[in-house]
Amino acid sequence: MDFSIIADSFDLYLSGTWVTLQLVLQSLAIGLLLAVPLAIAQVYGPAWLRWLVFAYGYFFRGTPLLVQTFLLYYGSGQFEWIQQLQQDWTFLKQAYGYALIAFALNTAAYTVEILRGAIATMPKGELEAAKACGMSTPLMLRRIVLPNAFRRALPAYSNEVIFMLHGSSIASIVTIVDITGAARLVNAKYYRPYEAFVTAGLIYLVLTLLTVWLFRQVEKRWFVHLRPLGSKP
After folding, report:
1. pLDDT in tens, 30-67
2. CA gap 217, 146 in Å, rounded
3. Which of 1, 89, 91, 171 could pair covalently with 176 via S-S, beta carbons 3.0-4.6 A apart?
4. 207 CB contacts (<8 Å, ≥6 apart)?
């Protein structure tokens, strides 16, 4: 084993880590923005809208992320209207754009189910109290339902963030040089798969540990009211 090649490729791994963080954070942000209204629609919307949201979630949770990425990256060029968009938007001329769309739609489908479950299991007493205070449905959603749902969905959502971090390695297959892509380049250059991919695995491990730590800090802050009196934080 010769890990000196990793030191020589440090800049490549560093840039790959930055690409991974950008891709994951952006896809999670877009996915969460999509998931919140869809989760509300699935609980409070009309039957036809609930069916559409269910069909969307069933497709993206029922098919592999790799297939979804391939469909967008390789298959979208078959449609003329997408070809026109590619001429107008440079965002759609790069593999990064298609990976971001695929990841965002995928994580949104899982986040919808997480939030839907949290919203649907809201204590009825809290809802009745909000209505008794004269709150309208939008105000009740903003001040009672969504804050409560976010708090109770946090542990499950932390798992989705970790899954998204690990799933982002698929981006390397569509020519994006993320962490896994950097490892593939190092292996192709030095023919040292063990050193190349062990290094990539260690970087993912560190990022996972940081993610878990950050969510633990948020949970301590959000669940402080559930802590027994006199206990240490």
Report:
1. 999 999 999 999 988 899 999 999 999 999 999 999 99
2. 20
3. 171
4. 17, 20, 21, 165
Alpha helices in 74-177 (DSSP H): 80-88, 95-120, 124-132, 137-140, 146-167
Residue 30: closest CA among 142, 105, 91: 105
Tell me the two tokens of residue 221. 């802050």
In angstroms, the CA 104 to CA 27 distance is 4
CB 174 within 8 A of CB 99: yes
Contact in structure between 208 and 163 (CB atoms under 8 Å):
no
**Tokens for 164?**
């998204």
What is the pTM (predicted TM-score) of this model? Answer: 0.88
For 175, the 3-state DSSP assignment is: coil
Contact 107, 164 (CB under 8 A): yes
Q: Which domains does the chain have, with CATH numbers?
A: 23-179 (1.10.3720.10)
Distance of alpha carbon 5 from alpha carbon 186, whole angstroms: 8
